[in-house]
Amino acid sequence: MPDEDVQEVQVPKEFVAKLTGEGGRLHELKHMAGSDITITFQTRPELVNKAVAVIRGPKVSASLGAILLMQELSELIQIPVCRLTCAVVG
Q1: Is 62 exposed, middle or buried (0-12, 13-18, 19+ CB in 10 A)?
Q2: DSSP strand E in the chain: where?
Q3: How far apart are CA 74 and CA 83, in angstroms?
Q4: What pLDDT is stored for residue 1 in this prediction?
Q5: pLDDT tens-digit series, residues 73-85
Q6: pLDDT at position 78, please?
Q7: Contacts with 70 (C-beta within 8 Å, 6 or more apart), sequence order
Q8: What span, in angstroms and rounded, lies between the C-alpha atoms of 51 and 11?
Q9: Its domain of life (predicted)?
Q10: Residue 83 per-residue DSSP state
Q11: Are 28 and 20 in contact (CB under 8 A)?
Q12: What is the dihedral of CA 60, 39, 10, 22, to 10 degrees?
């Protein structure tokens, strides 16, 4: 299909389980992107501490899926920092 696209997002390995496991929002992110994408995770020898999320689907949906995944990842990465800051300030 001509409008098919593949987007890749590097994910620190320690966050893959948080995205895909119990309580993870991967299914919700796929739904928000239009439910017509697939997201798989690959390991690559050149990326020791990272996995690659491969998002496939129609161009707009794949791009949106990558953006939503990066947004979710940034929120996950900031959680421990916020808790530490809130504990110190509060």
Answers
A1: buried
A2: 4-12, 38-43, 50-58
A3: 15
A4: 52
A5: 998 887 554 454 5
A6: 79
A7: 9
A8: 5
A9: Eukaryota
A10: H
A11: no
A12: 130
Answer yes or no: are the C-beta atoms of 47 and 37 closer than 8 Å: no
From the list 64, 73, 75, 81, the residue with the least C-alpha distance to 10 is 73
Task: State the amino acid at position 52 in one-letter form.
Answer: V
Position 90 scores a pLDDT of: 44
> How far, in Å, CA of 68 to CA of 5, rounded?
16
How high is the pLDDT of residue 57? 96
- With H, G, I as helix, E, B as strand and everything else as coil, classify residue 46: coil
Look up the CATH number of domain 4-89.
Answer: 3.30.1370.10
Q: Calculate the CA 16 to chain-centre distance.
A: 8
